[in-house]
Amino acid sequence: MVKISQQTLKIIILKKILILTFLNIILNQNFNYQPGDWFMFIQPGSINCITETSSNVMFGTDNGIFYQDKFNYEINYDSYNSNELQSKKIHHIIYDKNTDYYWLVNEDGINYKASISKYWNVIPFYKISINSPFQIINIGYNSESIWIKTDFGIIPLNRYNGSRESLDLFNEIEWGSSKIQLDEKIDLFNYNFNDSWLISNDKIYNTKNNLEYHPIVMYKNTFGETWVGTSSGLVFYGKYGWLNPYYLGMAHNNITEIYFDNQNTWWFGESYLRNNYNKNIFGQNFLNSGNIFLSSWNENENIWEYYYSNESLSIKNTDINKILRHNSKVYLGTMKGILVLDIIERSWKNISKDLNDEAIWDLIIIDNSLLVATARGINEISLLENIVIPNKNSFLDEFNNKEIYKFILEDQILYVSFSGGLAKIDFINEDINYISNKRIKDFQINQNRIFINDSKIYQIIAENKLKPYNLILDKGFDFCVSEEFIWTFTKNELYLYNMKKNIDWSYDYSDGIYGDFIYTLDCDDQWIWFSTNKGVFYYNWGVYHK
């Protein structure tokens, strides 16, 4: 038998601990996030239930919990109470003021927790002898218990641990405001709306966009306030018989273009083309439908604005490929020219005449001109007159009949990616230098380094003629670079790669990413923001990686 000294044994144990620690880091890449590390804008879907706390009115929706702050009336997504729910579709919700507990019903069962707790406790349906959430009609509470109203009777549950109890039914149960049943109606004829809204049978009708909204849940409190939730995510709120419409955050989910302007306003656009990769899928039906195709959120004031596809004849297409703001004008690059929105007047203009092609991929401002990347060359537009300037920079004719993908302005030099490669343009000297003849749709410049993407991410090595490209990552669609870090994605997973240390991390549903597809992303040295088919997400990544 070989004897091992205590010192050797300590070394072996220490090595094992280090190995296990390393494996734990590798296998558990997710962090213990704090409130505020992640937040999101998502479309609520149907408003199914409403409850009230001392400080908030809470809305249970198809996509989680939203709340309205009762002091400043701001409406936000409740990430703290929603993120730990496996299923985000909320059928019933109620706040028990006697215990300071939340109770809700989703696809997984009956969930409950203390308001200060982060994690939910789940009671599976079979524990109360039911098969699905659709068998639950409502949920309520009194001083004795929590009460579950089902198709076959009322079930009492312990208000602290959720165990089933044997109690007689009390009359003073406070029931939640849940989605009406098929044979029920919400009477709104005694309420007043502004000029653009009408009551028609069981519907609320908007005369501006010709859309109908179906009220399915109503909540009233003792202070004369009323909330009405609809099947499409719109909420009506008011006092003393007057109701006004409010969207709970995003009015649409499939965001494919995100832009942050110099007025602290975020702009969100949607493209049928980029969602479906089919140029023929767009049709006149979407224009006529009056759907929201563009929205904005002022970060400082928490104010949303929504823009409808049928509010102007100038809106010929709503496939937004690029958003750019200049003073009070917002320029949208679409598949049928450039849409110009005057924010102050809320008026629209379409610029398509004299463009090389109507398909617009990118926009950038140089001096008093707007440079336009089209499917067949570069055009220049006067920002003063909003018209195409013919032959102002004739040396740009070199790009005619070539598809232009992207612009980046760096140190007064314009970098252009196009079907023929990557070039840089010196406008002062009217000089064009070609960096690469490789077809490049997407590229980034960071710390004088040029990175390109064609489903794999490379760095251009200009001084090495034999090996001009250095492979960085063998995967990725859209990407962004911050110092030594690269963010990219595949389908519904984010990837972060440290080029200097050769370490990578992956982010998925367990971190807070909802949705089946990621469309686009961008980042700075502190935050990354990206869009999915379930909304727009923001992550404070600098806290954990910088």
Main-sheet strand order equals: 5-4-3-2-14
User: What is the C-alpha radius of gyration, as a whole number of Å?
Assistant: 28 Å
Q: Count the DSSP helices.
A: 5
Query: For the residues shown, what is the average pLDDT?
Result: 86
General shape: globular
Enumerate the spans where pLDDT stays under 50 for 5 or more consecutive residues: 8-29, 277-283
Question: The CATH topology of the domain at 43-247 is what?
Answer: Hemopexin
Give the total of beta strands. Answer: 47
CATH class label of the domain at 43-247: Mainly Beta
Intertermini distance: 51 Å
Q: Which second-level CATH architecture of the domain at 43-247 applies?
A: 4 Propeller
- Beta-sheet strand percentage? 35-45%
Main pleated-sheet profile:
5 strands, antiparallel
The residue fraction in helices comes out at: under 10%
Q: Could you say which structural class the secondary elements and strand pairing correspond to?
A: mainly beta
Structural notes for this entry:
The chain is mainly β and about 550 residues long. Among the domains are: about 45-245, Hemopexin; about 440-545, TolB, C-terminal domain (Neuraminidase, 6 Propeller), CATH 2.120.10. Strands 5-4-3-2-14 form a 5-stranded antiparallel sheet. Strand 35 and strand 36 (about 430-435) form a beta hairpin.
How are the SSEs ordered, and which strands pair?
Layout: H1 6-27, E1 38-41, E2 47-52, E3 56-61, E4 64-69, E5 75-77, H2 79-82, E6 90-96, E7 101-106, E8 109-114, E9 121-123, E10 136-141, E11 146-150, E12 153-157, E13 174-175, E14 177-178, E15 197-200, E16 203-206, E17 211-213, E18 215-220, E19 225-230, E20 234-239, E21 244-247, E22 257-260, E23 265-269, H3 272-276, H4 284-289, E24 292-298, E25 303-308, E26 322-326, E27 329-334, E28 337-342, E29 347-351, E30 360-366, E31 369-374, E32 377-382, E33 404-410, E34 413-418, E35 421-426, E36 431-436, E37 442-446, E38 449-453, E39 457-460, E40 469-473, E41 479-482, E42 485-490, E43 493-498, E44 503-507, E45 518-523, E46 528-532, E47 535-539, H5 542-545
Antiparallel strand pairs: 1-47, 2-3, 2-14, 3-4, 4-5, 6-7, 7-8, 8-9, 10-11, 10-13, 11-12, 15-16, 16-17, 18-19, 19-20, 20-21, 22-23, 23-24, 24-25, 26-27, 27-28, 28-29, 30-31, 31-32, 33-34, 34-35, 35-36, 37-38, 38-39, 39-40, 41-42, 42-43, 43-44, 45-46, 46-47
